[in-house]
Amino acid sequence: MSRTPLMAGNWKMNLDHQAAALLVQKLDWTLKDANHDFGAVEVAVCPPFTDLRTVQTLVDGDKLEIKYGGQDLSVHDSGAYTGEISGAFLAKLGCTYVIVGHSERREYHNETDEVVADKLAAAYRYGLTPIFCCGEGLEIRKAGTHVAHVLDQIRAGLAQLTPEQVRSIVIAYEPIWAIGTGEVATPDDAQEVCGAIRTQLAEMYTGDTADGIRILYGGSVKSSNIAQIMGGRDVDGALVGGAALDAAEFAAICRYQQHVVPDA
Length: 264
Ligand SMILES: O=C(CO)COP(=O)(O)O
What we know:
It catalyses: D-glyceraldehyde 3-phosphate = dihydroxyacetone phosphate. By secondary structure, the chain is of the alpha/beta class. The chain has one domain: Aldolase class I (TIM Barrel), CATH 3.20.20. It has helices spanning 17-33, 52-61, 87-92, 103-108, 113-125, 138-143, 146-158, 163-166, 187-204, 209-212, 226-229, 247-254, and strands at 6-10, 42-46, 67-70, 97-100, 129-134, 170-173, 214-218, 237-240. It is globular and about 45 Å long. The structure holds 1,3-dihydroxyacetonephosphate (13P).
């Protein structure tokens, strides 16, 4: 089954709504200027919540082909939960995606596997496609138990979802030691874990479900390393942090096929 690659920018807590307007427009025109085929490599951005209305207005008004999503959502639908953002609100703003279980949420907001599972279920209640993040810290990597750790996260996260829901999920493998550190997992490291995730999915779900699920790599992705990372047969795109804050650089990542150096 062929999977459409997805390049998703996670802006984290960067860029206010005015800066967001500049970046999405520049990203769209840079890609269109290069005749980017958005159907062949999908492009998405996940800005801070306060930028989403601005991004929606530009995407709708100027027919941008960039998709967008939130960086988190509440497990609750509505009510007395000060500071929380409902999936209903994200859906109403036209979000396609929502990042769930990012390691920064797990670490700084104490999100457990159970909370992450609740958030994945909440995303589906509103028709949002989750970008479900998993990944190991340095200690686990050093101990060599990273694959088992990630597969535990996958099983726990998917526990509440129906097989039909799982078919559309996007999974992002982000080794924590490679996030924002300049330390990139090698293409073999990325493929090892992405491949193990797909094998796990094949054991959990019947039919072609595992074949159809997109598995992204994230962690210090740049235009200079994306082509090699995308060489992994189970790597279907990237979740990009720092490099997604620069339109030209992120566009170059989305255009990774242009800088694949043919084997001599
Ligand atoms: O956490 C990440 C994306 O969600 C990766 O961030 P960097 O690309 O800045 O390493």
